[in-house]
Specification:
There is one protein chain. The chain is built from 26 helices and 23 strands. It is an alpha/beta fold. It has 6 domains: 214 residues, Four Helix Bundle (Hemerythrin (Met), subunit A) (Up-down Bundle); 46 residues; 104 residues, 2-Layer Sandwich (Beta-Lactamase); 185 residues, Histidine kinase-like ATPase, C-terminal domain (Heat Shock Protein 90, 2-Layer Sandwich); 132 residues, Response regulator (Rossmann fold, 3-Layer(aba) Sandwich), CATH 3.40.50; 124 residues, Response regulator (Rossmann fold, 3-Layer(aba) Sandwich), CATH 3.40.50. The strands form 5 sheets. Strands 7-9-11-13-12-10 form a 6-stranded mixed β-sheet, with helices on one face.
């Protein structure tokens, strides 16, 4: 606020402030002197008078003692009476003086001593003076003398001492208060001295501030005025007051700000213009009347390749070529002759020239701007190179899009073709393979050797055709991204053994030795069982195919870490493929090594391409389509794994796959747990314990329905057939059912709709439904409530396995259990077979040699014989011959379970006589029990 005052007002305020300050200091000094005077008065009134009172009291007490003592030596009663009267008067005066003393200001310590003195004096008066005075009045001088000695003298001592102590304390307090008064006096003196010093300093400070308040602003005004005059407009001008100097500074600031504003507007306008020129995509060129370039923006620099300082001031004709140059100059001359601005120029295309001399297509527009001093031609130009290229790319892109549309249409047609052909081919194959199995197994009667051979050829050809169709469809699904993995727990050792058994017959025909090496701690994994089987089978089949007679094929499996995936371990050259970067830390490594013809290094890259055979001559010698390895690679990569190949010509080949390992011990335990009867659907429970079971076969194809009927009736399951979903509803509601088999491609209502509706009917919802169709979509089927999904054509083993999972593969047991005779010279092997049969209702009979077996068969006539071939003395061949020559035992089915490598002659001798030949080294319980049940069913059908 002071800054806003005028200089005159500041002087008045300053002197007023000095006067107020001095007045305040003097007032403080007077107040201090008044307090010092009051302190002296207090010392006098409170301490000096009190000290006189104590002195008087001490004197009167002494007089009383003297009066009592004088009375004892007085000769007359009058003298005694005078002394006693004096004593009483003194006591009264002492009480008065004491009361006055106690009314004064006493410190706490004084009050304590005064109280003690009053108590001592009271005792002195009541126990000493008063009894002595009474004795003297009674003229009992001796008594008074005794009181003087015994009471007055002892009691006087504390009284005298107390009054003296009070006196000393009063003197001490008086001295202390005097010193305080002296201290206050010193303070007042110091205040006066400080007042003089402060007054002097204040005067100096005020003078300095006045000089500063007046001279410095004037100096600032002069400095700023000189800076503005010199063109310095960046300095800050602050108006700090409203006085005369402030008004001057304000006027100077207004001049400065106006200059800054005007200059800033000019600079902003220039900056905006420059920013526009610098940031537009088009090149902007300003050409003066003489054709010289005055403005050349960055976009123009980028288009033409010149820097601004290189082209400004030069003729614009440098930027065009040929006839375009003349046309442009003519346009400029016409513009110069006009007296008013032209209309916006028409966009034209011409050939521009870059600094390096290259031509390019450009588009430009010309505008004319007139000034008082002349005119400018503004040329806005754009490089058309990218636009021309974009047009070409657009045409190319449209062609590619059209091509993609055509390819997608072709892909859809291919998928539709594969889907249609799958159905059309699987339908007849279903009948071919199914009836061939029925005939080959003798379910329709005995066959001659020649007939059995023909039927085997038909069955093998059908299975080969089915495998080819499956391979093509699988590859098509993978390529289309429609292959879906159905993950479930896998028992790897069992899967490997079963896979070996699938190629064992072909290997035995070529005397190829099959070896299986499974490392400990392999564990179980979760994967798509069918696809893993296909991977292993394709590798084994490929190895057996290209291994010469007497060679070796070895399959190895072990658990490896992530770091070992893709590593090549043999001495042969090899090729591995990149793999998906998943987070799995452990993998299952499966390798199949053969001692076959080998592969040249340059052919590694062709191995996994579809329909690709390395050598056409090999294609003629070794049958195949070139799909096996391509499917292996696709299925492995679909699981998140990878593949590798190692080989040397003439030495052999090793194919290795790595599958991610997910341990599923809990899932395996849950799946292998036997279901309780209470968990079965109620219709199934009723039929499981009854004498009859019915299955409804919903199938419009007569051959497919007949095949399913035969396979189900072998399990003592009677069948009803419905050719449509509508008929199936009627039959299902009339007859209690243990099972429904369902085709998808039905007339009118398709199988999916039938399945959905039947699961909504409480009376039918709990009947297990098994889908058997060429259009088997496992995910959809299971999601709609199907118990299992099988794809045509189905094998008897697939159907039996499915029914076993549903609890239906249990034939009605006769009153007497069926007996099975196990024959082997190795007791351990007999026990293994017996363990496989332990949880069944069959009665097991054991024989440990050929002769013992023949005798037991003659005596007991078992329902089935499980026979080894390699036994001393009487071997298995002898046992078969002896049993078949005896009418009582000739019709007993025989299962051969042996580790012997059979020759073609051995098989020729055994095939007509035995039901099945099985390899002991890869025997699994599930496969063995299926063959046992099938053999017993065939015997029952014959009976």
């Amino acid at each position: 606020m002071i800054k806003n005052l005028t200089i005159k007002s500041r002087l008045i305020v300053t002197f007023f402030f000095i006067a107020i300050t001095l007045l305040g200091i003097e007032s403080i000094s007077l107040f201090g002197m008044s307090k010092a005077r009051d302190s002296l008065k207090t010392v006098y009134e409170d301490r000096i008078i009190a000290l006189d009172q104590l002195t008087d009291i001490e004197s009167l007490i002494l007089q009383n003692r003297i009066a009592i003592t004088a009375s004892l030596v007085a000769s007359t009663p009058e003298e005694i009476s005078i002394n006693v009267a004096k004593f009483e008067k003194n006591e009264t005066e002492i009480d008065r003086i004491w009361d006055a003393y106690m009314a004064t200001y006493l410190m706490p310590e004084e009050k304590i001593l005064a109280t003690k003195f009053a108590d001592d004096r009271k005792k002195f008066v009541t126990q000493g003076l008063n009894p002595a005075a009474a004795a003297l009045r009674a003229n009992e001088v001796k008594k008074a003398s005794r009181i003087l000695v015994e009471n007055i003298r002892p009691l006087y001592q504390p009284v005298g001492q107390g009054i003296k102590t009070l006196g000393k304390l009063q003197l001490s307090v008086t001295k202390q208060e005097y010193e305080e008064v002296q201290s206050r006096y010193d303070i007042i003196r110091n205040i006066i001295i400080a007042t003089a010093i402060i007054g002097l300093g204040l005067a100096i400070w005020i003078g300095f501030m006045l000089v500063r308040a007046i001279s410095r602003p004037l100096e600032d005004v002069v400095r700023i005025a000189r800076g503005v005059a010199a063109g310095n407009l960046t300095q800050q001008i602050e108006v700090r007051s409203t006085n005369e100097i402030g008004q001057l500074m304000k006027a100077l600031k207004e001049i400065h700000d106006n200059l800054v504003k005007v200059i800033g507007q000019i600079r902003d306008s220039e900056a905006r213009t420059r920013a526009v020129l610098d940031n537009v995509d088009e090149g902007i060129i300003a050409i003066n009347e003489g054709g010289m370039i005055e403005i050349f923006n960055p976009a123009a620099e980028q288009i033409f390749g010149y820097k601004g300082n290189e082209i400004i001031g030069k003729n614009a004709s440098l930027l065009t070529r040929g006839s375009s140059r003349d046309q442009h100059n003519g346009s400029l001359e016409r513009h110069q002759q006009l007296n008013k601005p032209t209309a916006p120029g028409v966009s034209r295309e011409m050939v521009g020239v870059r600094q390096n001399g290259t031509n390019f297509p450009m588009e430009f527009k010309t505008r004319e701007i007139r000034f008082n001093m002349g005119q400018l031609h503004i040329v806005v130009t754009r490089d058309l190179t990218a636009s021309k290229q974009a047009e070409a790319e657009q045409k190319k892109h449209e062609q590619v899009q059209q091509r993609n549309v055509e390819l997608e249409a072709a892909s859809r047609m291919k998928s539709e073709f594969f889907s249609t052909m799958s159905h059309e081919l699987r339908t007849p194959l279903n009948a071919i393979i199914g009836f061939s199995e029925v005939l080959k197994d003798g379910l329709m009667g005995d066959l001659t050797d020649e007939q059995r051979g023909y039927i085997s050829d038909i069955l093998e050809s059908g299975q080969h055709q089915l495998a080819l169709i499956n391979d093509i469809l699988d590859l098509s699904k993978v390529e289309a991204g429609k292959m879906i993995l159905h993950l479930e727990p896998i028992d790897l050792p069992s899967l490997f053994s079963n896979s070996l058994s699938m190629v064992r017959e072909k290997a035995a025909a070529q005397h190829i030795h099959l070896n299986l090496d499974i490392a400990d701690g392999l564990g179980d994994i979760q994967a798509d069982v069918r696809k893993v089987k296909q991977i292993v089978y394709n590798l084994l089949s490929n190895a057996v195919k290209f291994t010469p007679t007497g060679g070796d094929v070895t399959m190895r499996a072990r658990r490896v870490s992530r770091a070992q995936v893709g590593q090549l371990t043999s001495q042969w050259a090899g090729l591995s493929f990149p793999w998906s970067n998943n987070k799995i830390t452990d993998f299952i490594e499966i390798s199949v090594t053969d001692s076959g013809i080998g592969i040249a290094n340059e052919n590694f890259g062709r191995l996994f391409k579809p329909f690709n055979q390395i050598d056409s001559s090999l294609a003629r010698k070794f049958e195949g389509t070139g799909l096996g390895l391509a499917i292996v690679k696709s299925l492995v990569e679909l699981h998140g794994g990878t593949v590798a190949v190692e080989s040397a010509e003439g030495q052999g080949t090793c194919f290795t796959v790595w599958l991610p390992l997910w341990m599923t011990e809990e899932a395996v335990a849950a799946l292998t747990e036997e279901p309780a009867d209470s968990a079965l659907p109620s219709p199934l429970m009723a039929l499981r314990h009854s004498g009859e079971r019915f299955a409804l076969v919903v199938e419009d194809d007569d051959r497919a329905a007949e095949l399913i009927r035969i396979q189900l009736e072998l399990l003592n399951i009677k069948t009803l057939r419905a050719v449509s979903a509508e008929t199936a509803f009627s039959l299902a509601l009339q007859q209690p059912l243990a099972l429904i088999t369902l085709d998808i491609l039905l007339p009118n209502m398709i199988g999916w709709e039938f399945l959905t509706r039947i699961k909504q009917i409480p009376a039918l919802a709990r009947i297990p439904v098994v889908i058997i169709s060429t259009m088997a979509d496992r995910s959809m089927g299971l999601s709609l409530g199907a118990s299992a999904v099988l794809q045509k054509p189905i094998s008897r083993a697939d159907l039996y396995d499915t029914l076993t999972d549903l609890g239906l593969h249990t034939s009605v047991q006769p009153e007497q259990p069926l007996t099975i005779l196990i024959v082997d010279d190795d007791p351990k092997a007999v026990e293994v077979i017996a363990i496989h049969l332990r949880d069944t209702s069959y009665k097991v009979i054991k024989a440990y040699g050929g002769r013992e077996a023949i005798e037991a068969a003659y005596r007991l006539l078992p329902d089935l014989i499980v026979l080894d071939l390699l036994m001393p003395e009487v071997n298995g061949f002898d046992v078969v011959l002896a049993l078949k020559n005896n009418p009582d035992t000739a019709r007993i089915p025989i299962l051969i379970v042996t580790s012997k490598q059979l020759t073609a002659e051995d098989r020729a001798a055994l095939d007509p006589q035995v039901t099945k030949i099985m390899n002991k080294t890869v025997l699994s319980q599930g496969h063995f029990l299926n063959e046992v049940r099938c053999a017993l069913m065939i015997r029952r059908q014959e009976d």
